[in-house]
C-alpha cells in the first residue's frame, strides 16, 4: 500500500509529489530555478544532502530552508528566489 501524494504550492503553482519526497523534488518539477546568487545567476541543488546550501527556498514564510532536507507536506507554501 502506498501513501497518498501530498500537494504543495511552489511560487503559486500547485504541485503533487509522492509522500516522503523532498521539497527540492517538488521545486524541481515546478520552478525554473531555486534561487539566484548575488550576481543573479540561477542556482539549483548540488549535493542533495544539506551541505552546499544551493537549494535554499522560503517555506511557509521561513527563509533559507534547505529544500533537499525538508520532506514535502500537504499545504506547504514554497517560494524561490530569496
Ligand atoms: S542540495 Fe546541497 S544543501 Fe540542498
TrEMBL record:
GO terms for molecular function: iron-sulfur cluster binding. Transmembrane segments: none annotated. InterPro entries: 2Fe-2S-bd_N, 2Fe-2S_ferredoxin-like_sf. This is Ferredoxin.
Amino acid at each position: 500500500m502506498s501513501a497518498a501524494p501530498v500537494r504543495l504550492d511552489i511560487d503559486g503553482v500547485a504541485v503533487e509529489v509522492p509522500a516522503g519526497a523532498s521539497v527540492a523534488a517538488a521545486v524541481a518539477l515546478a520552478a525554473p530555478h531555486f534561487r539566484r546568487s548575488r550576481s543573479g545567476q540561477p542556482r539549483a541543488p548540488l549535493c542533495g544532502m544539506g551541505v552546499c546550501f544551493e537549494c535554499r527556498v522560503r517555506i511557509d514564510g521561513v527563509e533559507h530552508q534547505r529544500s533537499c532536507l525538508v520532506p514535502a507536506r500537504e499545504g506547504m507554501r514554497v517560494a524561490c528566489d530569496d
